[in-house]
Amino acid sequence: MRFFLIFSFCCFTVLSQRQYFDHKFLTIRTSLENEKVLKELAQKLDFHRFSSRLNGKNLILLKPHEIEKTKDLLKKNGTTFEIKDVGYIKYSGKGIDYLSTRGDFNISTYNDFDLQMESLDSLTQKYKRKVKKIVLGETFEKRPLVALKLGFESKNSKPSIFMNAGIHAREWITSSSILWLINELLSNESYKEFLKDLDIYIAPMWNPDGYQFSRTKERNWRKNRRFYEDPEDEEICVGIDLNRNYPFKWKHQKCSNENGSGPVGGSELETQALMKFLTKNKDQLKGYIDFHSFGEHILYPFAYKKHIYPTNVEELKLIGKKMQKAIATVRDTEYDLINIADGMYPAPGSTADYAKSIGIRYSYGFELVPDGKHGIDGFNVPDTEIEPTGREVLAALRVLFERIIRDDEKTSLNQKTRTSMHL
Q1: Can you list the domains of the chain with their CATH numbers?
Q2: Does 314 participate in catalysis according to the annotation?
Q3: Model-level pTM?
Q4: Residue, of 393 and 3, whose pLDDT is higher
């Protein structure tokens, strides 16, 4: 019977985007009185936006069975809230039909996974001296997990940084703005020196199965698409939150939650592929960034528990502040700099924590646009935001690139000094 159920889920799918007429959007403004209950709800409900700032806007998507229970809880705690219908969550933008695989890749809109991969192949052909394509693994549905290595070949060992986007399927702005950024790094000669001194690994789409599902079936889908049996839910589950699946401080969260973390830490093919690459190259890797949306935050570890920080937390905060200022120079966007667990909520099993746990010095998460200030909220970001978001990220990355290169130069100088003293 169990195998029949899996077959049914796989093969009998709807032909259009899911409608959300039976769901509700709940809006709550953060206050000193409701801060605790908000963080508790964040572990259970589907927060489209979480804000730790006083009077900050929290946006929550409630499923039908959650509506009355959540309203009762908030009323009991004296929390003021607004609730409205959702209707149909759909794509907002211009360009080719986002449900179609037809047409050519368009860097200014949201492309399907196959077109994204074709664009990477084109870049590797066009800029052969600067870029190399690497396949790090494959997904449950047999899609490749692809990264590009940007950088000129060198006889000497170079420091490196790894970045990934799209780990959560519905966060389309992440992979699209990073694809724009890749093209800019390769085509703009002003970044040539970075490519000489640094190897830049970028995986623009780390959850292709979930991404394709979010395009064709359910716009709000977050997880990957693997089927498994959760012993606590006692049911066949579909999808794991890949940003809760890493083994460092992993914690089981039921698959019925949006943050369902899988049967064990490190269970997913996507997780295993990234772990393998990071651990194999950890001596050269000096930086790691996991791109998400939304909220406009620069995030530093640790995520697994509040008030727990890396030994170099002050260094991470110092660089984070410089990245904040750099982002603001593009179009005056003000990113917050916060610890993941303190400023948002505990997220055990996260990618940024894992990267830091294996010794990668500069490990960050980014929550990209929007922040709700300019009439744009949620994951449904107009594609006109792709390029400006990419420019903001690139401004921040210049700060981190320069720091990593400067660290490497200092290390090389110290090694030469020690060698000359021995002679």
Answers
A1: 18-87 (3.30.70.340), 113-411 (3.40.630.10)
A2: no
A3: 0.80
A4: 393
